[in-house]
Amino acid sequence: xxxxxxxxxxxxxxxxxxxxxxxxxxxxxxxxxxxxxxxxxxxxxxxxxxxxxxxxxxxxxxxxxxxxxxxxxxxxxxxxxxxxxxxxxxxxxxxxxxxxxxxxxxxxxxxxxxxxxxxxxxxxxxxxxxxxxxxxxxxxxxxxxxxxxxxxxxxxxxxxxxxxxxxxxxxxxxxxxxxxxxxxxxxxxxxxxxxxxxxxxxxxxxxxxxxxxxxxxxxxxxxxxxxxxxxxxxxxxxxxxxxxxxxxxxxxxxx
Amino acid sequence: xxxxxxxxxxxxxxxxxxxxxxxxxxxxxxxxxxxxxxxxxxxxxxxxxxxxxxxxxxxxxxxxxxxxxxxxxxxxxxxxxxxxxxxxxxxxxxxxxxxxxxxxxxxxxxxxxxxxxxxxxxxxxxxxxxxxxxxxxxxxxxxxxxxxxxxxxxxxxxxxxxxxxxxxxxxxxxxxxxxxxxxxxxxxxxxxxxxxxxxxxxxxxxxxxxxxxxxxxxxxxxxxxxxxxxxxxxxxxxxxxxxxxxxxxxxxxxxxxxxxxxxxxxxxxxxxxxxxxxxxxxxxxxx
Amino acid sequence: xxxxxxxxxxxxxxxxxxxxxxxxxxxxxxxxxxxxxxxxxxxxxxxxxxxxxxxxxxxxxxxxxxxxxxxxxxxxxxxxxxxxxxxxxxxxxxxxxxxxxxxxxxxxxxxxxxxxxxxxxxxxxxxxxxxxxxxxxxxxxxxxxxxxxxxxxxxxxxxxxxxxxxxxxxxxxxxxxxxxxxxxxxxxxxxxxxxxxxxxxxxxxxxxxxxxxxxxxxxxxxxxxxxxxxxxxxxxxxxxxxxxxxxxxxxxxxxxxxxxxxxxxxxxxx
Lengths: 255, 287, 270
Prior knowledge:
The complex is a heterotrimer of chains A (255), B (287) and C (270). Chain A contains eight helices and no strands. Chain A is mostly helical and 255 residues long. Chain A is extended. In chain B, 53% of the residues lie in helices and 11% in strands. A six-stranded parallel sheet of chain B has the order 3-2-1-4-5-6, with helices on both faces. Chains in contact: A-B, A-C, B-C.
């Protein structure tokens, strides 16, 4: 058994991947139990894997080994701090979990000065572009003008602290909304590209990794029979599902 | 008009089948032709990693997991190939639990292809959870205090790649390969304070927001999704190789044309239906 | 102090560890006796003190006469320790989610309601991968490693990737049924999106390949128009958005640091 597993691990892995892919994609046809089952398997595997990897790659090398093997006993206090999260489940003492969450939130909030300075001050500096300089063509100057117009118009759109009563400000904010549409269009176009790529990745796996496995398996008569049975079973399930739906609709109409 | 009305109610499952067919054709053919147009941010990314001093290491910060593997894995592989080709040592730092094993397998596969050795040419630091900013700011000051062992449990002081790395001074560049907004943490806590170049490899969704940072120089170069990876492969001299990135770029071409046609068709049908509805109401606009 | 901190080994180490755990437990027990009117101030003070670390580390100079020898900002030297400590403490929070899942699915299995077998499958999958992972590290046999490979590469990564890829289908459906150009602004957005979508992929260059590569007419090549949109108008608009986000983020961070934030989480009775 162990030898068979060792010999066929890659094949089993690819078939398992294909099965998982079709199970999830079955929801595109209709909600079904096959999809629900694999969804729960996914959650179980994710949670279990998280437990394993957190121990093996984080807690054991960074906490357990330095404490128990390295002799640094003070790391035991990290476990005390970590246990404070679990007071969340106590009705009486849930506030203790707020202490540790507050510590983390405070730590993150404290980094704002550095983040604001290091991220946005260079942005402000880069916004001060010369209209004319050595080496710049007329087209570069036009681009700088366009840049300033769009930047100031878009920024004026975000002045929410007061009403845009001034005509110039109102018009600038309206123009800003138009220019922001170009930015949103860019984000939308890029989003379509990104999401399509994820599907292309899965399809590539089915065609170029699973496909050759199917071609190998197809040589066997048992596999051909199994596929034929599976096809028949799928057709029957779809027919049963459809007639079930028709009966349900007619029952509701009858009421 | 009847056709347009019927087309407005087309079953979504037919659309799903059509997109699958549209994408299947380039994937079955697996064209080897890479994009011949290389964006300047991809060239700059290439130049950045090409000019890292030999006595410094590069950090490949991989925030991705299986969910965005289709976009981020080709980027990771392209960067690894480049660094192996140049002989620049690098470490892989994974922030996603599943991505840790995936990036390790990628490194092993490419290492075998290029005759490199783990420990001598590259190291994987394993999965690192927790607030990124604390880890990055700590690592900049004391590398071995934050990262004690590699993914396999070997102390970093025993590996040739990492034994001499004490702090930011031994790090030549950072490449952030991510599906989320984590690059700002590197900019704030490492690259801008210590004046280190940063190559950004986002999924396409995040790329549009990065252009202001490319303009200011805070990001040295960028690989925009799988297209950026395909362009980078062209720069690596792989323009005639059958790779997933090349096939995906052509599959994306057909997918984009299909989506644009759908949007146009959907809006044409909507406009005609609206006009028909207005005409039927005696030319008055209702609503 | 150095003698107490160690490192220690053997029974002394065990005693120190047990002592640390016991004192930690006593500390937590004392916390449970804090009267309600002092709880919020304690959380506020600790949040503020935690925030002081990175703020002062940045705002104070790296070297100054008022620091103790060697006149260096001591907070900078503590950064690696804080980095490791936060990683470790954060990792302990992992079981929060796992415990929640166990409660939900455990109840479903016990009650044997509809679909209870899905919850059973959750437990089986959880146990299988935890067993395979730890067994692969501890056992000499290759079987656990193979089981781990099948569960991780075969099932887990495929399921994760497929879940994410479902969005592509919803975009296709939305493109046909929901993306309606009802105004000129929407038309501008869609046009920009369409040009950029074609410009980024190889087919965009093919569409306008008949135009020359250099000269005045080359600016009408699709990839050049798309690229100009990205580095010109898009860049300016994104920078304006970034400035807005920056000011909002700064204000939000200050409110959290000073515990001025209001809302269901912050106003809850402690």
